[in-house]
Amino acid sequence: MSDMWIVAETPQLAAELVRGAKDIGKGGAVVAFVGGDEAAAKTVVGSGADKAYALPLPADAMWESYATVLAEKAKAEKPKAIMIGSSRRGRDMAAQIAGMLDVPCISDCKKLLIEGNSITADRMVYGGMATKTLKATADTIVVTIGARSFEPLAADPSRAGSVETLPLTGAKAKVTSRKGKEVESVNLGDANLVVGVGRGFVEQSELALAEALVKAMGAELACSRPIAEFFKWLPEERYLGISGQSIKPQVYLAVGISGQAQHVYGVRDSKTIVSVNKDENAPILQLSDYFIVGDLKEILPALTQAFAAK
């Protein structure tokens, strides 16, 4: 049985992909390549990898530069699949590796299945509104998979497995300087309750209604793309959608969000979706388990009061 490779920038994402690789690989070894030092690689072994390589990033190098190193190694070892975390840098690396190996590259996979010498992959199309099934018969296939697609196995620090460092060699691009980006500390991926706000909020001051509800619920505040990218009312770290974050909370409450395909892609895996919208024909209502049609300026204070009373 051929090996399954996973490539991820962080141990957390690596642990998720290891779980997927073990489920898909049908007995083949799972080899992980993770950003960081050997301590990070050891963590991934504890999460189920049979072998882990640390990918330390020199100060003057880019993460994507590891594509050449990994492609050369893949040519020699011929893994059945290379599963890469679907971050912006991960997607870039996946395309480079596939090009160097001259093999198929399938992006945003939601499901993989090995059948004999072929791999069947399901991927989202049309902004997540439909699924396309592809079959590849190449010896190796490269796929990108988003965060939280798989639940990681329980960590076992005592688990045995090989750990090595894979140095970066032959990088052609050099980083001359780095400038930190000011970001707000938020972890929407781990939140059980998320309230999303959209263009139904006419003025920035109206976001105070959502913030009060978030506080009463003990939730995290998120938004649709226009709120973060166009109006700049909230930081981009809180934007949900096909090019933003994807979440899987117990409850997602969408307020003033119409429910376009790009936004739905980021929230469709929520356990329960509740929406508040004044438009009874808004697409988000079709996706919702529960919804309220009405003015958010009236409904949000009532919901806040109800939660605060508990």
Count every helix, treating DSSP H or I runs of 4 or more residues as helices.
Answer: 9
Biggest sheet strand order reads 5-9-4-1-2-3-10
Q: What would you report as the Rg, rounded to the nearest angstrom? A: 21 Å
CATH class of the largest domain: Alpha Beta
Strand content: 25-35%
Shape: elongated
How many structurally independent domains?
A: 2
Distance between the termini: 55 Å
Number of strands: 15
Briefly note the CATH topology name of the largest domain. Rossmann fold
Question: What is the mean pLDDT?
Answer: 91
Helix proportion: 25-40%
CATH superfamily (homologous) name of the largest domain:
HUPs
- Going by helix content, strand content and strand pairing, the class is alpha/beta
In the CATH hierarchy, the architecture of the largest domain is 3-Layer(aba) Sandwich
**Order of SSEs, N→C?**
EHEHEHEHEEEEEEEHEHEHEHEH
Q: Strand count, sense and closure of the main sheet?
A: 7 strands, parallel
Write a brief structural summary.
The protein has 310 residues and is α/β, with parallel strands linked by helices. Helices cover 29% and strands 25% of the residues.
Overview of this protein structure:
The protein has 310 residues and is of the alpha/beta class. The protein folds into 2 domains: 162 residues, Rossmann fold, CATH 3.40.50; 121 residues, 3-Layer(aba) Sandwich (Rossmann fold), CATH 3.40.50. Helix content is 29%, strand content 25%. It has 9 helices and 15 strands. Strands 5-9-4-1-2-3-10 form a 7-stranded parallel beta sheet, sandwiched between helices. It has a 5-stranded parallel beta sheet with strand order 12-11-13-14-15. The protein has a 3-stranded antiparallel beta sheet with strand order 6-7-8, with no helix packed on it. Strand 6 and strand 7 form a beta hairpin. Helix 1 packs across helix 2, helix 3 packs across helix 4 and helix 5 packs parallel to helix 9. The longest helix has 15 residues. It starts with a strand and ends with a helix. 41% of the residues are buried.
